């Protein structure tokens, strides 16, 4: 009985503890504190508890601990005065939000006012057009319509703003897409044109998801190209593409207006080597006679003696350097000198062309008011070309009954300054649209500004012509031609196991161009390109893409490995069948079989051939370590990158064998094996067998 009471007591205590645990786990407490509530919380009134409830509450260990922790946290917050700080920060945030909302409302109202103004302007324009147009005939009567709700046009809603933005966004988006397309076309064209700068033609590879085609490119200039060289600021001209220009203008020999002699030749007398290089490249050459002082110009134009002296000096320089013409550049020309200048140009043209009519006299039109400074009609009769650099007067010049082909538009460019590239591109576009006789860059050089202007000139004033080179898609091969080309590629791979690509091969007897042409004719380049395209879409990192990429050499090597595997299996089956046949014949007929020796020799030959093909298969199979000679560096695709669109690769057309690769051909290894077999046969025949026969007792 006592044990039972104790047991019941224990069970009761356990039940009480279980209820306490369930109570503490079922009810959780929220210790979060609301910063917005800065008022002090009123303490709950205490309620008297009975003795039993107090004893039970003492068993709520977890609940009591959490309650005491909550009280400590609240006391700490009260002591630190965080409530007041949170209240202040809350007020600051409210003030900031109100100010932002106010600014947003103000901007919204400004947009509405702008839309209202545009609507009023459009309404006024329609009313003005209606007043000017004749009255329309009365319209036929229409059935009455339901009364429409008329809104005040002086106010706009959010819907009006949305409609205006929706109307503007497509136009902006279309302009952006057109600009991106033009920029892409410009990059592609300039890439080809730069290759053509140093060559008359270039072969360019065009790839799509299914094929690789090769085009032979050449270019045509839509007008003459002029390069102006600043003799007072020379640059390294030895790599300059003279052959791209029609005229090389040496700027400038300074004129002494009083005497007609030159004040400075601007290193003209020491430029023979440069002029000879330009002449050999096909450039016509002329020099500029410059005078930038209005008083000196007036004095010169009124002095017949000075004009004759200048004409004699020009004739001497033309004959000395075999120059093709002269350019007259008087920077400031007064209206009172207009007729004198025309008379001088007419005299100079007759004096220069008296012995050689092919020489040219050109005039630079510089004046801010050409209507007063130049008699274009008189100058047209004596001048071969006009250099202009102000597009605002182009329409005036073209309306003076002067052919557009006589005008050459020059772009001022220096190392320190030039106009924005958009304006320069537009000026070259203007040259093309008006069919002017030429375009020039003043001055040529090796600086960034010149290169930028030169790119714009190439892109705007040249056209590209392309001819498709025969490839696998347009010229199918016969079975014999296809087999021959594959055997040539197989042979080269077996002879040069360390090569990574067929382009720019080093120290080979077979030309790289032949191998590349064979890969094109067999369509291997198209297959490799298609596989690499798929790999670039699957790969997520440059390292992963580099593992997936294959070269033409890898593709041909894997194809060769499959061919060798099939041949090895066929010879293995044939050798096995011959061996079984040989054993059965020996078993049935023994030494009486008359084809015993012939079959044994055939079996030996098949075994040797099988061994050679098996070794060749092991040699080309990159899955077999220790024996394989495959290259893993993949130098052809060293340029593997990653951008926002994913990973991509660029081909390296200069492949060199790996220095760590033993470039021993398969034929050399075969020779070593056969030599070892031969030595083994000789040793067995003449050394081992005689020793065995000595101890042989019949």
In short, what is this structure?
The chain has 698 residues and is of the alpha/beta class. Helices cover 54% and strands 12% of the residues. The strands form 3 sheets. An 8-stranded parallel barrel has the order 3-4-6-7-8-9-10-11, surrounded by 7 helices. It has a 3-stranded antiparallel β-sheet with strand order 1-2-12. The chain has a two-stranded antiparallel sheet with strand order 13-14.
How would you characterize this protein structure?
There is one protein chain. Helix 12 (394-398) links the parallel strand 9 and strand 10 (407-412). Residues 1-9, 17-47, 134-154 and 630-636 have low confidence and may be disordered. The protein is built from 21 helices and 14 strands. Strands 3-4-6-7-8-9-10-11 form an 8-stranded parallel beta barrel, surrounded by 7 helices. Among the domains are: 220-468, Glycosidases (TIM Barrel, Alpha-Beta Barrel), CATH 3.20.20.80; 479-664, no CATH class. The chain has helices at residues 2-26, 51-58, 61-80, 82-132, 158-197, 272-280, 294-301, 304-321, 338-352, 370-373, 376-382, 394-398, 421-433, 448-461, 479-495, 512-521, 524-538, 542-548, 552-589, 596-620, 666-694, and strands at residues 202-207, 212-221, 224-230, 247-255, 262-264, 284-291, 325-330, 360-364, 385-388, 407-412, 438-442, 462-468, 639-643, 646-650. The chain is flat. Residues 125-155 are annotated as: Disordered. Keywords: Membrane, Transmembrane, Transmembrane helix. The chain crosses the membrane at residues 563-586, 598-619, 667-692. This is Glycosyl hydrolase family 18 (Putative chitinase).
């Amino acid at each position: 009985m006592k044990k039972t009471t104790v047991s019941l007591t224990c069970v009761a205590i356990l039940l009480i503890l279980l209820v306490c645990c369930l109570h503490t786990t079922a009810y959780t407490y929220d210790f979060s504190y609301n910063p917005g509530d800065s008022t002090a919380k009123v303490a709950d009134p205490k309620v008297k508890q009975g003795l039993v409830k107090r004893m039970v509450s003492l068993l709520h260990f977890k609940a009591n601990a959490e309650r005491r922790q909550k009280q400590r946290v609240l006391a700490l917050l009260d002591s630190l005065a965080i409530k007041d700080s949170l209240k202040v920060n809350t007020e600051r945030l409210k003030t900031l939000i109100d100010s932002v909302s106010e600014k947003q409302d103000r901007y919204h109202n400004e947009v509405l006012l702008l839309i209202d103004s545009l609507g009023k302007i459009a309404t006024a324009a329609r009313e003005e057009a209606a007043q000017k147009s004749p009255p329309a005939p009365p319209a036929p009567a229409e059935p009455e319509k339901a009364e429409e709700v008329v809104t005040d046009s002086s106010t706009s809603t959010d819907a009006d703003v949305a409609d205006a933005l929706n109307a503007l966004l497509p136009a902006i988006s279309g302009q952006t897409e057109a600009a991106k397309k033009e920029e892409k076309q410009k990059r592609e064209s300039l890439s080809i044109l730069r290759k053509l700068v140093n060559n008359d033609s270039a072969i360019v590879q065009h790839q799509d998801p299914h094929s690789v085609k090769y085009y032979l490119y050449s270019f045509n200039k839509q007008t003459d190209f002029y390069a102006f060289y600043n003799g007072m600021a020379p640059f390294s001209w030895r790599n300059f593409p003279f052959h791209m220009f029609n005229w090389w203008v040496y700027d400038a020999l300074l004129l002494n207006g009083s005497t007609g002699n030159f004040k400075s030749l601007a290193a003209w007398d020491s430029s023979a080597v440069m002029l000879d290089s330009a002449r050999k490249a096909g450039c016509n050459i002329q020099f500029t006679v410059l005078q930038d002082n209005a008083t000196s110009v007036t004095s010169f134009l009124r002095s017949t003696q000075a004009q004759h002296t200048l004409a004699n000096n020009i004739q001497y320089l033309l004959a000395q350097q075999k120059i093709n013409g002269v350019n007259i550049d008087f920077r400031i020309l007064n209206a009172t000198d207009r007729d004198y200048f025309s008379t001088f140009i007419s005299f100079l043209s007759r004096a220069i062309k008296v012995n050689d009519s092919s020489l040219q006299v050109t005039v630079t039109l510089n004046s801010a008011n050409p209507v007063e400074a130049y008699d274009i009609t008189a100058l047209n009769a004596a001048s071969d070309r006009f250099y202009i650099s102000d597009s605002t007067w182009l329409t005036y010049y073209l309306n003076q009954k002067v052919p557009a082909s006589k005008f050459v538009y020059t772009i001022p460019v220096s190392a320190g300054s030039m106009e924005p590239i958009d304006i320069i591109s537009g000026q070259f576009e203007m040259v093309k649209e008006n069919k002017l006789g030429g375009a020039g860059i003043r001055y040529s050089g090796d600086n960034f500004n010149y290169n930028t202007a030169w790119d714009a000139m190439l892109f705007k004033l040249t056209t590209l012509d392309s001819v498709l080179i025969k490839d696998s898609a347009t010229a199918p091969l016969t079975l014999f031609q296809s087999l021959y080309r594959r055997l040539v590629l197989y042979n080269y791979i077996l002879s040069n196991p360390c090569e990574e690509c067929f382009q720019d091969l080093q120290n080979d007897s077979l030309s790289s161009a032949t191998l590349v042409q064979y890969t094109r004719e067999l369509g291997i380049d198209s297959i490799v390109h298609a596989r690499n395209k798929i790999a670039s879409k699957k790969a997520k990192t440059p390292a992963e893409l580099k593992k997936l990429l294959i070269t033409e050499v890898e593709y041909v090597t894997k194809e060769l490995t499959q061919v060798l595997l099939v041949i090895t299996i066929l010879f293995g089956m044939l050798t096995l069948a011959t061996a079984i046949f040989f054993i059965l014949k020996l078993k049935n007929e023994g030494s009486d079989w008359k084809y015993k020796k012939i079959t044994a020799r055939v079996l030996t030959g098949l075994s040797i051939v099988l061994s050679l093909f098996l070794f060749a298969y092991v040699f080309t199979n990159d899955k077999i370590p220790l024996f394989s000679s495959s290259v893993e560096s993949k130098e052809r695709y060293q340029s593997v990158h990653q951008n926002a669109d994913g990973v991509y690769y660029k081909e390296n057309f200069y492949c060199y064998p790996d220095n760590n690769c033993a470039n021993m051909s398969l034929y050399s290894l075969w020779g070593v094996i056969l030599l070892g077999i031969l030595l083994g046969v000789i040793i067995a025949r003449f050394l081992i067998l005689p020793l065995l026969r000595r101890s042989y007792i019949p």
